[in-house]
Amino acid sequence: MFPSLNIGGLVLPTAGLVYILGAWLVLSVIERAANALDLDAESTYGLAAISLAASFIGARILFVIFHWSAFQQNLIGIVWPLTSGYHFGGGLFFGALAGILYGRAKQLPLSATLDALAPGLLVASIVVSLADFLGGPGYGIETSIPWGIDVFGIQRHPVQFYEIVIALAGLLVWWWGFKHRRQEGQMFLMTLIIYATGRLIVDAFRANSPLTESGYHIVQIGALSVVLVSGYLLSRMMTQSDEHEVAELS
User: Fold this and answer.
1) Of the candidates 80, 108, 105, which has an alpha carbon nearest to the alpha carbon of residue 19?
2) Better-predicted residue by pLDDT, 198 or 61
3) pLDDT value at position 90?
4) What is the DSSP letter of 2?
């Protein structure tokens, strides 16, 4: 783990730096995807930027609220962008809400816009996993495998790297879908299925995964739900596309 970077006398949290650089990369990827799909790149970029800003702000505000005792004597720490500490669920909620409102205001096509956002979301997951690895809040279960990493003297599964591999696989599937796309929304659903399936497997190797009172992994439950719903929607989409092609031929 590399929680901080020393530059002269300045100590910078690596996770914060990764998030800042990652935000730029995510927006760049989404803009390129929108151009490739012949969408309104400016509005799509604006949606991504608004959603990203809302995610950071919302995640930070909720984290501060839930950990107010750590900030009441250091108010500047609330707005210092390199300070670690964000509420993941809150970030997802506020980011999605901002994106929906902005998209409706700009009258962006839902399915095509989701296709353009998909590679950016995958890159964002890579950024989060890398920041998680550098900052050290997440870690895998103990293991003796050759590629295990040392975490405070204990050999553990490199779950963050597993997550990065899953996201890279999703990007490859998105690119394949882009070359063979038949219907808007197809690429988004395909990449969502790949990523959720990977998280369903990888979460079993995470030592600090949130659990229900019965001991079930919450992330796995969510990932399985996403796989089933996305698979159903993709199946319906492909069936309708085939029926449309048959109708045109006849």
Assistant:
1) 80
2) 198
3) 83
4) -
Instruction: Report whether 47 contacts 99 (CB < 8 A).
Output: yes
Q: CA distances (Å), 222 to each of 40, 118, 148, 225, in order?
A: 32, 18, 27, 5
Q: What mean pLDDT value characterizes the chain?
A: 87
Q: What crossing angle do the helices spanning 110-135 and 186-202 adopt, rounded to 10°? A: 30
Q: What is the pLDDT of residue 228?
A: 97
The helix (run of H) or strand (run of E) holding residue 150 is strand 149-151
Q: CA-to-CA distance for 158 and 4, rounded, in angstroms?
A: 19
Segment 188-217 shows an average pLDDT of: 92
What pLDDT was estimated at residue 16? 76
Tokens describing residue 64: 């501060």
In angstroms, rounded to a whole number, what is the distance separating the alpha carbons of residues 203 and 143?
15
Those residues whose C-beta lies under 8 Å from the C-beta of residue 77, and which sit 6 or more positions away, are: 70, 71, 83
pTM score of the predicted model: 0.86
Other C-beta atoms closer than 10 Å to the C-beta of 72 total: 10
Give me the pLDDT at residue 161, please: 94
Under 8 Å between Cβ of 178 and 150: no
What stretches of 144-217 show up as alpha helix (H) in DSSP? 159-179, 186-202
Residue 75, classified by CB atoms within 10 Å of its CB into exposed (0-12), middle (13-18) or buried (19+), is exposed
Q: Return the closest-CA partner of residue 171 out of 32, 16, 35.
A: 32
Q: Phi, psi (5° rounding) for residue 85?
A: 125, 95
